[in-house]
Amino acid sequence: MPAAAAPRPGQGGPARRSALPAALVLEDGRIFRGRAYGAVGRTFGEAVFSTGMTGYQETLTDPSYHRQVVVMTAPHIGNTGVNDEDPESARIWVAGFVVRDPARTPSNWRSRRTLDEELAAQGVVGIHGIDTRALTRHLRERGAMRVGVFSGQELPDETAMLAEVRGAAEMTGADLAAEVATKEPYTVPALGPDGRPLPAGAARFRVAAVDLGIKGMTPHRMAERGIEVHVLPATASAADVLAVEPDGVFFSNGPGDPATADGPVAVMREVLERRIPLFGICFGNQILGRALGFGTFKLKYGHRGINQPVQDRATGKVEVTAHNHGFAVDAPLDRVSETPYGRAEVSHVCLNDQVVEGLRLLDRPAFSVQYHPEAAAGPHDAAYLFDRFASLMEDQRA
């Protein structure tokens, strides 16, 4: 159950829950009235919106959404129910879930239960029946902000609900990676051409992956390329990383403010000093930015969805990509920068708003992207980046 949620016992079945009143209260005072969805109670977080028309199960289980209340812009959610194969982690991480029109009955041969049942079982407070288009427009104009979702037989008065929302923690300054990352190291074995795990010692490469909120599909994408992935906690030291004797080091996606991630930045700088091939995704891109001496900043409402256009500045190619980030790297787009580790450049840029979407070192084997090349769910335009990482390790070995 998300830490911010406090569902009440005795919620009853789906029909009874959906008849209960609910309210979504933004910190600027705007209120949307609807009906309960999922668990009944109250929850707090940062209100953000996702533009994906599919992949709600992957969104819910993405650790990067920790302490965020996700508004789905697609009007009809829950059509395919919930299965046991698609989660990106072992639990739902969103603090709350907001939909306009939930599916009454799922229709998919892989479905095991309804989305409403899964939210209730995991204690995730949600709301349905509100105008999510109006809410999304409000967040685009005013920016992501704190929010509370309240549901139950009797709701607090508006003044009391607003006071609770304004008393909740903000995302700026939040250090959250260690809260969602693995507590113990584990290994994802390399896979052979037949999709079966390779025996010990037969892997093409060995990678140390620092888990800052890693999604399950990410080590799988590397394993498909014959890479054995040793996943380490967010608190891993440089010594822990080097003990793996890695051919490469990977820094994952994750939640929170990158300005708080001093530990991972220090580890990355040690990796850069040793010229070990390095690849970062999302939060890992922001960590690389900080390691190189660039700043980071909070976006007004972030990028979240599976249809964001990004241009590779070296080739001019435009990729449709999956995103989930509320912070970005502040690096110059118009020139190559000098850093303590040699020259660096912005390799990718978002065509919607010119936000930095990738960094590349010119004198060392290191690069990162702000988006998600594992794309579950989403397009596969950027899957080649895992091959690029393998090529760096191949070149370094040669």
Description:
By secondary structure, this protein is α/β, with parallel strands linked by helices. The protein has helices at residues 14-18, 56-60, 115-121, 132-142, 158-166, 177-180, 217-223, 238-243, 262-273, 283-291, 384-397, and strands spanning 21-26, 31-38, 42-50, 68-72, 76-77, 96-99, 101-102, 125-128, 145-151, 186-188, 205-210, 227-232, 248-251, 278-281, 295-312, 318-330, 337-339, 342-350, 356-361, 366-369. The strands form three sheets. Strands 10, 11, 12, 13, 14, 15, 16, 17, 18, 19 and 20 form an eleven-stranded mixed sheet that branches. A seven-stranded mixed beta barrel has the order 1-2-8-6-4-3-9. α9 crosses α10 (283-291). It starts with 13 loop residues before the first helix and ends with a helix. 51% of the residues are buried. Mean pLDDT is 94; it is low at 1-5.
C-alpha termini separation? 48 Å
Q: What's the alpha carbon Rg, rounded to whole Å?
A: 21 Å
Q: Give the averaged pLDDT, no decimals.
A: 94
State the oligomer: single chain
Number of helices: 11
- Major sheet summary line: 11 strands, mixed
Given helix and strand content, the structural type is: alpha/beta
Determine the strand fraction and express it as a percent band: 25-35%
Q: Using the alpha-carbon principal axes, give the shape.
A: globular
Spans with pLDDT under 50 lasting ≥5 residues?
A: 1-5
Helix content: 10-25%
Number of strands: 20
